[in-house]
Amino acid sequence: MENLPLRFESIFSADCIIFGFDEGELKVLLIERNEEPFKEWFALPGNFVYENESIDEAAERILYELTGLKGIYMQQFYTFGEVNRHPQGRVITVAYFAMIRLNGQKELKPVTNYARKAVWVSVKDLPQLAFDHTEIFKKGFEKIKNKISYQPIAFELLPEKFTLTQLQNLYEVILNKKLDKRNFRKKMLAYDILKELDEKQKGVSYRAAKLYKFDKRKYSKYFHNELSFGKE
Amino acid sequence: MENLPLRFESIFSADCIIFGFDEGELKVLLIERNEEPFKEWFALPGNFVYENESIDEAAERILYELTGLKGIYMQQFYTFGEVNRHPQGRVITVAYFAMIRLNGQKELKPVTNYARKAVWVSVKDLPQLAFDHTEIFKKGFEKIKNKISYQPIAFELLPEKFTLTQLQNLYEVILNKKLDKRNFRKKMLAYDILKELDEKQKGVSYRAAKLYKFDKRKYSKYFHNELSFGKE
DNA sequence: AATATACGGTGTATTTTTTACACTAAGTGA
DNA sequence: TCACTTAGTGTAAAAAATACACCGTATATT
Predict the structure, then answer these.
(1) Which domains are assigned to chain A?
(2) Is the predicted ipTM greater than 0.95, yes or no?
């Protein structure tokens, strides 16, 4: 093959790993493909980057088309550019992860034509994915496992008001390990990035827990403190 | 503008931040551009990704063309895709950093035509760079500052055999802070990733220090231990 | 009203890690 | 042999991480 710049017939796309937390499980939003190749396979949501948009904007658009949500926490984490990753030609993809608050609603009606439907799947039983999306998912999951220990991204997955137990559960699910309740609370409160509310949990059949919310102001003051829940 | 996939007229490139350590200074390899736009400006070495190569291969090629070196430690760290980052059209670039052993040699004869020459510049007095390369450099430098504290990448910049003082100097230069000699040695040796050699430093006009080398075998045993020189 | 149930919420002692700190030893060059 | 320069070393104090168990309180049940 000749040495030509990737100019014609080359395409790039952005793919998104969209995480949600529901009923104690960490979930990913997958689409069922409506087009060849890999028609009817599950895949990460993704689409081409248009000429007039940045890659970040493309990622935001993909998320919006699927969920109707804007202003969501998203982060680029890796670019996949193997020559044969796409069976129909050269495609380079920039991968993002995003975290959204589920708040119970689970049905999504994607407005894109490349997907026939979108479903939330627990990360524990992820099906085989189209293209190299399984690899992309693994890399992104590793990334957030890592990142959650030193940056307050977990809050993005919880309702605005949450209990410390809910927060701990989320950490436990992502890190896939049990944490000690007293130590977790001590540490989390010591970071001083949570605001204790006057409200309490409702609708539980036992003693209601205090609600907290993430305090962005306080956080930015201490931006350098790394949260650490890695070793316990 | 229409919403078209970035198919025609779109280009991507790989840009490399190539670090070297010499005479106690951290340096970057810059090229002086030989072509418009930004002719005669300094820039990060970079080139288009060809159709028949992965992005990683493109990055390796760029490094090879400039330095004649292969098998160098390189890592992708971010992809820059703003619409107007290149004055002549849409270019997306995947950025890498690389670390090479300088061993004194400083003259490089680039064999590419986009560069008239390549020079080592201290990171402390980096000139203005073409395109958004200053931003790319900053992001990459942050990345290695971060990474050096938990992965043994610093060794890539040193000669195969080095003294603990040389290693400490390198950490100090990258982290831009003084470290305590005793604590540095204690910690570094405790990781048990260095092999003490029988040899000593030569050609110094004072007591010669012991030489060490990085022991990859030992390192992979304890791959999970994060080196940490972040807080002192 | 009494009781059972389930989670909420709290403190302390121990171990480990990090930090701060200063002098003698050894080799070189004059 | 003396002056100079860097090599090489240990300990004590502070901070952070860990391990660990019980009572309190709201709700549901009888």
Answers:
(1) 11-147 (3.90.79.10), 160-221 (1.10.10.10)
(2) no
